[in-house]
């Protein structure tokens, strides 16, 4: 089923262009959202601060990686080249897209009343949740052609932990209508662990493909 959906959505130049175009749009929106506050964050921490934007950028990089296969008429689920570098990219992109696709369901609903009562609730509640769930949908296509390794999974987990530290211990969390506490920090860590676990169960191992 996953392979069939991936081939339908990514397997022709036209369909892949549509997915890439929408991914670029989400990247532009995320950049617009974080840009006004990024100046208060040290530049080396930007990738962990603007986490959802970085997740979309990583997802876009995965899509760019399959363009040559699609352009020459190959089957994206069979003919996409595999390597250790691509396995790391695909794994981290998958984990971050799932993690930050699910995260708004927790973070916004912890202050549900404030968000739905806000003048721009259609954008800052329904719009955010809707678009972020599309992150998850995009990520779930990657195991149809991607691979993972123990090192890639460990890297993704390490980045998830680092994100929690930067957001909730150092204090550079995404803009919210309330001050987050230990509850959101714990939930974010749990989502990160769950995303890595899902990646581990979803991707085939690169080592198996090399035998």
From TrEMBL:
It comes from the Archaea. InterPro entries: CoA-Trfase_III_dom_1_sf (IPR023606), DUF1405 (IPR009845). The chain crosses the membrane at residues 16-34, 46-67, 88-112, 124-145, 152-170, 182-203. Keywords: Membrane, Transmembrane, Transmembrane helix. This is DUF1405 domain-containing protein. It comes from Halorubrum tebenquichense DSM 14210.
């Amino acid at each position: 089923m996953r392979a069939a959906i991936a081939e339908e959505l990514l397997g022709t130049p036209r369909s892949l262009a549509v997915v890439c175009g929408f991914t670029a749009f989400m990247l532009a929106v995320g950049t617009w959202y974080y840009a006004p506050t990024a100046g208060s964050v040290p530049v080396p921490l930007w990738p962990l601060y603007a986490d959802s934007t970085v997740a979309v950028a990583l997802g876009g990089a995965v899509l760019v990686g399959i363009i040559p296969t699609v352009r020459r008429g190959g089957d994206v689920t069979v003919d996409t080249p595999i390597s250790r570098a691509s396995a790391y990219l695909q794994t981290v992109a998958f984990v971050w897209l799932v993690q930050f696709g699910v995260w708004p369901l927790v973070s916004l609903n912890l202050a549900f009343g404030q968000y739905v009562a806000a003048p721009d609730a259609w954008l800052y509640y329904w719009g955010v949740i809707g678009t972020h769930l599309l992150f998850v949908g995009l990520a779930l296509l990657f195991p149809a052609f991607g691979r993972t390794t123990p090192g890639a999974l460990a890297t993704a987990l390490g980045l998830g932990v680092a994100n929690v530290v930067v957001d909730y211990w150092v204090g550079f969390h995404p803009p919210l209508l309330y001050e987050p506490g230990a509850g959101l920090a714990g939930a974010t860590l749990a989502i990160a662990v769950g995303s890595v676990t899902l990646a581990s169960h979803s991707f085939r191992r690169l080592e198996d493909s090399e035998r």
